[in-house]
Design a protein that fits this description.
Elements lengths: L2 H31 L10 E2 L8 E7 L4 H13 L5 E4 L1 H6 L3 H7 L3 E4 L12 H18 L6 E2 L9 H8 L3 E3 L3 E2 L7 H9 L7 E4 L6 H17 L3 E3 L1 H5 L9
Parallel strand pairs: 1-6, 2-3, 2-8, 2-9, 3-4, 5-6, 7-8
Helix pairs in contact: 2-8, 5-6, 7-8
Length: about 250
């Protein structure tokens, strides 16, 4: 092999190695962005370490009228407060629905304004996503919004910094619903099989999962009661951090 060919081969080899390293770094950052219990900047909670028999039910997206009208009577019948992470655009399209949730004794959280993938944007975009929804939550009656859930659970540095600077904390989850499950009993069993004291449960009752959740939610609430687990809001659950049942 001539010296020129050897140099070309070496350049190609270095370029391939660099491309592989770059792809691995991008994949690593993508995986890192979705870790529920780890965050590079700011405060994050995916559960609460406590032995007190309490869990938080959280509902993402919306609000939309069918979802609100479905979930409110079920929660009321079981005396179960919950936390709803709402999208700013949906609140603008459906004024008054967030207030109905609040008036029913539930807690409202910030789920961004657009529900877009919030990775790789300028800091101003993150501030707007958090701030615009914060303003809408306050209009609907949530006087001191402090809980933020990133769309799709994705975040790296820019979004957590905007969340921290807005005096919010990031709330993720340790119990996830069975995506795509069409049988209410199996959907409920999937959640009940994971839940334990201090768990934060994620569900999506506003859109595609609504029909299944309408039948599964009573099963879940009855199952929690059978296990001696009481539903509370995320803020109530966070107040138990590190506390034992005898305190």
């Amino acid at each position: 092999m001539t010296r020129a060919r050897a140099q070309r081969f070496m350049r190609v080899r270095i370029a391939v190695i660099a491309a592989v390293i770059m792809l691995a770094a991008v994949y690593g950052l993508w995986r890192l962005s979705a870790l529920p219990c780890f965050q590079l900047v700011g405060e994050v909670h995916c559960r609460v370490e406590t032995d007190q028999p309490m869990v938080a039910l959280t509902f993402d997206d919306g609000p939309v009228a069918p979802g609100v009208e479905m979930v409110l009577p079920i929660l009321a019948e079981h005396g179960a407060p919950a936390t709803f992470f709402l999208v700013g655009q949906a609140m603008e399209r459906n004024p008054g629905l967030a207030r109905r949730l609040l008036d029913a004794g539930h807690e409202l959280g910030n789920h961004s304004y657009s529900h877009a993938h919030l990775l790789g944007h300028l800091p101003s975009r993150y501030r707007q996503e958090v701030g615009d929804t914060d303003a809408l939550l306050r209009v609907e009656g949530e006087e001191h919004p402090r809980l933020f859930r990133p769309p799709y659970g994705k975040r790296l540095i820019g979004l957590p910094m905007a969340v921290r600077d807005a005096d919010y904390i990031t709330v993720m989850w340790d119990v996830e619903e069975a995506y795509g499950e069409t049988d209410p009993q199996r959907y409920a069993d999937f959640i009940l099989g994971q839940v334990r004291p201090g768990s934060i449960v994620l569900m999506h009752p506003m859109f595609g999962h609504r029909e299944v959740i309408s039948k599964a939610l009573p099963i879940i609430l009855d199952g929690l009661a059978e296990r001696g687990l009481q539903p509370v809001t995320v803020s109530q659950l966070l107040s138990l951090e590190g506390k034992s049942s005898d305190e």
